[in-house]
Write a structure and sequence with these properties.
The complex is a heterodimer.
Chain A: H1 5-18, H2 27-52, H3 55-82, H4 87-98, H5 102-114, H6 123-131, H7 133-142, H8 148-160, H9 162-176, H10 185-190, H11 192-213, H12 219-242, H13 247-258, H14 264-272, H15 278-308
Helix pairs in contact in A: 1-11, 2-9, 2-11, 3-4, 3-6, 3-7, 3-12, 4-7, 4-15, 5-11, 5-13, 5-15, 6-9, 8-14, 11-15, 12-13, 12-15, 13-15
Chain B: H1 8-32, H2 38-58, H3 71-76
Helix pairs in contact in B: 1-2
Classes of the chains: A mainly alpha, B mainly alpha.
Amino acid sequence: MTIDIVVAFFLLGVAARLLQSPFTIPESLYKSLTIILMLAIGLKGGMALSKHASGNIFSQSLWVVSLGLILPLIAFVLAFFIGHLKRIDAASLAAHYGSVSVGTYAVAVAVLENRQIDYEAYFPLFVVLLEMPAIAVGLALAKKQTGTANRSQVLHEIFLNQGMVLMTGGLLIGYLCAEQMGRITPLFIDLFPGILALFLLEMGMVAADRLRALKDSISFLITFAIAMPLVGALFGATISLIIALSHGGIVLLAVLGASASYIAVPAAMRAALPDADHGLSITASLGVTFPFNVIVGIPLYITLVDMYL
Amino acid sequence: MRAHINSPAIRQLAFGLCVGGAMLLLGLWLNTVGQAGVATAVVGSGLLAINTLQYLHQSGRIYRTAIITDSTLKGGTR
């Protein structure tokens, strides 16, 4: 069994925490890595969009948005009716699982490039599109009547969170300035795998901390956090077949469907549903789903797509 | 107290056994066709184990489990 080199950094982070190593990555470095990763993903997508922009991408985008509307509904049904969670907690959890994880997407891209599997280069557009619908569905499911001030705060979080600003901004810059990209390629493109490796080192340590918190949690949460990626991957792969994506594109949309947000949605949910148990959602998405996707899920989705397509 | 047939505990056990069992079978099948399915099978087995332990604990058949307690269940569910 071969472990992808960037995933190996994630495992190093987990091992360091489990062995109680005092090693830490400075908060400011982690934030810098996140900013560079999000900008790099947006820029790459913008560059690709400038070359491949067409009406076909618009229709594909509509299908992708439908994925972001379906998944939170499924997650809510599981969390509310089987998990017996409170409605507000189930809705918050559903929003997390309907949205996407940029970190998981970045790992999937690195794995595909390492295996030289082609994919649609404008995929970052889909990542941006999948950030938003789940938050709206989650709020609707919570049936929470937010006040005017709170509502504007929620809209602010939905449309102006770090991920949205950086990825949409990167997408636009990459699209509008594609010819000048060579000037910033060394930082955003050439160093991408190394930056991702450092990011995953930190994520491994955070995930290990979350796994410890799960000692006091319920088995349903763990089962849910593993079942939802499989359901999401199945729906993602189905939609990618409908919109005729390439081999790598099918894997990537499956990964996007399988991933759960741990950056953008928690911030939006804190503003919109302050009474929800946010620890529940972040522990499931970051403590279980993220490591599951990185270690087991992505290789599994690639294997299944290889076998059937 | 024993769990009622329609209780949340039974539903959660059924859900856990379905997901865990499906993953275990998927992993074993991948192995038989020459693909890497060990990790999937291990995750499936783990799910079967923790869900069974949780159910036994909740239904009062065992009183102490080192792996899972129901402290979050009391605060985090309806």
